[in-house]
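Fig. S4 source data, part A: sequence.
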Amino acid sequence: HMKKNLLSFFVLASTALSAQSPSPDWSTLQNTNFPQIAAGIRYLDAVDANVIWATGYDGFAGGNNYNWVTTSSDGGNTFAYGDVFPDTNTFAISSIEGIDANIAYVTAYNKVSGNLGAIFITTDAGASWTNTTAVNMYTNSASFANITCFTDAMTGITMGDPVAGEYEIHRTIDGGATWTQVPGANIPNPSSAAEYGLTGVYTKNGNDIWFGTNKGRVFHSADAGLTWTVGSTAGTAGVSRLAFRDNMNGLCIALVGTVPKLYKTINGGLNWTAITTTTNLGLNDICRIPGTTMYASCGAGTGNNIISYSTDDGATWIDWGSTNIQYLRIDFVDNINGWAGTFSDQSLSSIGGMYKYSGLATSLKPFAEKTDFEIFPNPSNGVVSFLLPAAKNGCTIEVIDALGKVVYTDKAFTTSVGEKKQLNLDFLSKGLYTVNVKTTTESAFSKIVLQ
């Protein structure tokens, strides 16, 4: 089952150090506190603005999957590291799912035999882990535990490879205390005897869950795992990454042979269409930015050391701007708080491993900077003027500070020929602000400096 790992785009830390510079919007470097140099982030689950869970691997030793888990309850300012298992040879981690600051689940498979599996839970912020696998789970020689996913604190599923022609999916409604197997009749059959699930390849939104397979297919449940449907990309190999901004609209990266391609769905994953232009797309991971219609991506390796975002459902990707940084995983919890996992320092384990988003709040709608309004003077001593076109009649003007907080709101009513709108912002502190002009259907922004 090592074939599963071929579908991960993780890379090894380069031994040749190149000049690195982070994106101005990702300038906060945090220490994941893994005990070894060049420790990379394999799986990342940001739960909320404070809580992050992640697993690590050795970037110098062939990507070895160790027992490393790190977690933060203060937005990444400090991370605590711990081992899940008492040794590094029995189990290998295949996914991590955080619930809150104390509770998380790790899915694992037998490392030596490359099959079977178990689910472990921590209720003490990773200090100790307990096997919560039921007696009937992952016991067949064909079993392989891929993911565990919870739609709320009590309700979740775990998914494993097909056994006797049926995907092995178990469901809990009591936080993993007991599990019930989902009937095969509720799950579409594998496309062939060679199809199987993949480690860590899943996403969720409310009661909706999606997971990918090695044959380019995406399974979807709209009822927290009770029943399932399936759709197929044109990918001939594995679905490596999934992200949905709501229960209908999503993106996935799937392999055509060995070439990764981006696909889009507008009906929950039943049908997928290829996006032909993928300039600036990071191939290591994609995620939604909750509260917006945006996606983020990150990449690592030759020609793909990038972190970027899309405001048009993946049609185009905008480089956030960084140099020679390998981004392995990315996750946002809202339009302000996001994290991108990378490698810790190659000489000191106490440096780096995680970048935190430090830019301005991302827009609630796809935006374009200064599309149809002017703001002046800029920089300003506090009194600013707008030129607004007539089409902006009744728009809302928001001023947002560097922490993403709306510090001023006003309405603008324009005439048929447009209007100059004046704001007095001299009550605000000096610094950089975002001015957002919103109608019911669109949003445009400009940055302004108060001095």
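Fig. S4 source data, part B ends here. Residues 37 and 348 are 6 Å apart (CA to CA).
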